[in-house]
Design goal:
It is an enzyme of class 1 (oxidoreductase). This is Catalase. One of its GO terms (biological process) is hydrogen peroxide catabolic process. The protein is α/β, with parallel strands linked by helices. It has three domains: about 350 residues, Catalase core domain (Catalase HpII,  Chain A, domain 1, Beta Barrel); about 90 residues, Hemocyanin, N-terminal domain (Up-down Bundle); about 150 residues, Rossmann fold (3-Layer(aba) Sandwich). It contains 20 helices and 18 strands. Strands 1, 2, 3, 4, 5, 6, 7, 8, 9 and 10 form a ten-stranded antiparallel sheet that branches. Strands 15-12-11-16-17-18 form a six-stranded parallel sheet, with helices on both faces. Strands 13-14 form a two-stranded antiparallel ribbon. Helix 3 packs antiparallel against helix 4, helix 4 packs across helix 12 and helix 5 packs parallel to helix 10. The longest helix has 18 residues. The chain starts with a helix and ends in an 11-residue tail after the last helix. Bound molecules: CIS-heme D hydroxychlorin gamma-spirolactone. CIS-heme D hydroxychlorin gamma-spirolactone binds next to strand 2, strand 3, strand 4 and helix 9.
Length: about 725
């Protein structure tokens, strides 16, 4: 494809959206019929104090539209944020797939990506402990391809028929609609404790992956095994991955809960602000490829969505990059109305028989019909492909296309059989001719019965800190469960994964791990089936470890876009202030001057500096690191502010990098609850005076690159 054509493609989507944008720049106010409105402040009445007249069509139009402003929120993934961008492949992938958007490295395929939480309603907090949705719509030349994945590579259940049960269990309980956006309640754990297939996923959602630092710092996964089909018709299995170039980072649970109060839009804002600031989030698309003939060579089933293919067995090849570089113009029109569906795919890709995937193929269109109100949702600008659409589908609610001509059927003679079917060589989609031969049964394959081995693999692969966080998460979640039997059942399952894990969780709950003897670990058994056939197998002892499952050793990727608070007040040392600001800016970190009040502060040399946030409007949990420059007057003012002292203390408790120079060290001491020596000698706390102060900015920057200093979790100050 020529560069010119490429430019046309990427601009096509923008142009198309442009046609639907409305800018209010000095125009008259009108009704929806284009009538200019003369008085938009008063309804039509019988005299200034009279009754309002039914005749007032302007009032009625405005109120009617308002009354209908809401559409049903998504039943799952209601809370989200999205952005536009593009995808580019690194090298042609013709050997694997004929998908056109994966061939030409000069082509930028437009994308729209929506991130979400699963359980909460549209107004819930971003920081819930939850899976994050990671849904990518590629507007390719051959039609839209939607990769509707999550930030975790496995799922809670193996068969889609259980999805409504799972979702009902995790959603707020139906009698009182409590708790919002939280899995820490009886119905969720009741379901999980008798559904052992969820155990691998439970390890992921109890880990810090469920409380990401940012959407920009999460991995994404297509979860299911899909198929690639190349030009010769040869198929291979493929698992999709998104690898964030900013590394994978999370917050800690206490912090997550505080952020939910301080800024429930934390993730939305982070995505929005970084794109507005020109720091475009990037991910590489990775694929794990398994040859068709190797389908059965693993000790798990490729069709089982509760399993990963460990990267040690099949490495992830990075084949392209996605960049998000534009925020939506209108949340509702784009982020709310975007309609994803696994069944939106292009030649070169196909499904497998994964029973979770198969059910999803029905659900997504069905849900859009309800949510978006009819079968024409593909005509909403954000959903329209850049590839032309021609078919005999007509009419329905809110039809936008004006189909010209007499024929809306195929084949037809009157219009020379147009639109015509396309041969495969012309880009026509043909399903992979997989051989299927079997009895019609409702059953679960025996190869799906090992629920604990990969849960164990995940546990084994975690660092000590990550393990501690999983134990704490389980203590929290199960601690909120009222029915003791549920807690005990969970301990039995956890013991199947790892006995130390179960014992530690049990200690927090005041329980010993009950014996599994005679316990039916799976209650999801068909009425006429033999429960023994559904009893999970015990975990293998040889599962080993997989480095890719731990977030503990992320590649060092610098501190770009990391949020740093500089605590200061009038009289802050001008030189120290400048030095740290310059050093952080050079690394492209984002700096906020936090002071006791808003407005401007005067530095020691009288220079006026704009304050970004007052201590009342922000909190340490909204930052990655804290810096306190010297200047006696400045530090004296901060010492008078309980919020400033708490700011530093909280940052310390959350293991964040903290630095101070000269008098600034006094604020750190004040935040130490009498344990100043302990605090100052802790990892990730950097201080210096006089000539020693010169090295502080550089050490601070290195510390931010480390993200957190977990040894401090055991340091009580
Ligand atoms: Fe789903 C939305 C991801 C299983 C039924 N799902 C939805 C979204 C994501 C996922 C990211 C939000 C899309 C957006 O931003 O608009 N879902 C997954 C993953 C799954 C999964 C990774 C397992 C591998 N989902 C799943 C099953 C079913 C559904 C088994 C039903 C049988 N999902 C839906 C849905 C939603 C949805 C009800 C709600 C809103 C929507 O589709 O558009 O159809």
């Amino acid at each position: 494809m020529s560069t010119e054509q490429n430019r046309t493609n990427t601009n096509d989507k923008l142009d198309e959206l442009e046609q639907n944008r409305e800018y209010s720049t000095g125009e008259f106010l009108t009704t929806n019929q284009g009538l200019r409105v003369n008085d938009d402040q008063n309804s039509l009445k019988t005299g200034p104090r009279g009754a309002t007249l039914l005749e007032d069509f302007i009032l009625r139009e405005k109120i009617t539209h308002f009354d209908h402003e809401r559409i049903p929120e998504r039943i799952v993934h209601a809370r989200g944020a999205a952005a536009h961008g593009y995808f580019q492949v690194y090298e042609p992938q013709a050997g694997l797939t004929k998908a056109k958007f994966l061939q030409d490295p000069s082509v930028k395929t437009p994308v729209f990506v929506r991130f979400s939480t699963v359980a909460g309603s549209r107004g819930s907090s971003d920081l819930a402990r939850d899976v994050r949705g990671f849904a990518v719509k590629f507007y390719t030349e051959e039609g839209n391809f939607d990769l509707v994945g999550n930030n975790m590579p496995v799922f809670f259940i193996q068969d889609s028929i259980k999805f409504p049960d799972f979702v009902h269990a995790v959603k707020p309980e139906p009698n009182n609609e409590i708790p919002q956006a939280a899995s820490a309640h009886d119905t969720f754990w009741d379901f999980i404790s008798i559904t052992p297939e969820s155990m691998h996923m439970i390890m992921w959602v109890m880990s810090d992956r469920a409380i990401p630092r940012s959407y920009r710092m999460m991995e994404g996964f297509g979860v299911h095994t899909f198929r690639f089909i190349n030009g010769e018709g040869k198929s291979s299995f493929v698992k999709f991955h998104w690898k964030p170039l900013l590394g994978v980072h999370s917050v800690v649970w206490d912090e997550a809960q505080l952020i939910s109060g301080r800024d429930p839009d934390f993730h939305r804002r982070d995505l929005w602000d970084s794109i507005e600031g020109g720091a475009y989030p990037e991910w590489e698309l990775g694929v794990q490829i398994v040859a068709e003939e190797d389908e059965h060579k693993f000790d798990f089933d490729l069709l089982d969505a509760t399993k990963i293919i460990p990267e040690e067995l099949v490495p992830v090849q990075r084949i392209g990059k996605m960049v998000l570089n534009r925020n939506p113009d209108n949340y509702f029109a784009e982020t709310e109305q975007v309609a994803f569906h696994l069944g939106h795919l292009v030649p070169g890709l196909d499904f497998t028989n994964d029973p979770l995937l198969q059910g999803r193929l029905f659900s997504y269109t069905d849900t859009q019909l309800k949510r978006l109100g009819g079968p024409n949702f593909h005509e909403i600008p954000i959903n329209r492909p850049i590839a032309p659409v021609h078919n005999g589908q007509r009419d329905g609610h809110m039809r936008q296309t004006i189909n010209v001509g007499r024929t809306s059927y195929s084949p037809n003679g009157i219009n020379a059989d147009s639109p015509a079917q396309a041969k495969e060589s012309e880009g026509g989609f043909a399903s992979y001719a997989e051989r299927i031969d079997g009895h019609k049964v409702r059953a679960r394959s025996k190869s799906f019965r090992d629920h604990y081995s990969q849960a164990k693999l995940f546990w084994n692969s975690q660092s000590d800190t990550e393990k501690t966080h999983i134990v704490k998460a389980l203590r929290f979640e199960l601690g909120k469960v009222a029915v003791e039997e549920i807690r005990e059942r969970m301990l039995i399952h956890l013991a199947q994964v790892d006995t130390t894990l179960a014992t530690l969780v049990g200690e927090g709950l005041g329980l010993t791990v009950p014996s599994a003897q005679g316990v039916q670990l799976n209650k999801g058994v068909p009425a006429d089936a033999n429960p023994a056939d559904y009893q999970p197998t015990t975990a293998r002892t040889d599962v080993g470890q997989s480095a890719a499952l731990s977030m503990a050793n992320p590649p060092k990727v610098g501190i770009k876009t990391r949020q740093v608070a500089i605590l200061a007040a009038d009289g802050v040392d001008n030189t120290e202030f400048d030095v740290i600001k310059q050093a952080l800016s050079a690394e492209e970190a984002v700096i906020a001057i936090v002071a006791p009040r808003l407005g401007k502060l005067k530095t020691s040399t009288g220079e006026a500096v704009k304050i970004d946030a007052s201590l009342q409007t922000t909190a340490s949990v909204l930052f990655d690191a804290v810096y306190v420059p010297g200047g006696q007057t400045s530090v004296n003012s901060l010492l008078q502010e309980a919020d400033a002292v708490r700011f530093v203390h909280e940052a310390f408790m959350h293991c964040k990098p903290i630095a101070a120079t000269a008098e600034g060290v006094d604020l750190l001491k004040a935040a130490a609850n009498g344990g100043a020596e302990k605090l100052l000698s802790s990892e990730g706390v950097i201080t210096g005076e006089g000539t020693n102060a010169e090295a502080v900015p550089q050490k601070f920057i290195e510390a931010i690159g480390e993200h957190r200093f977990w040894s401090r979790e055991k340091t009580l100050v």
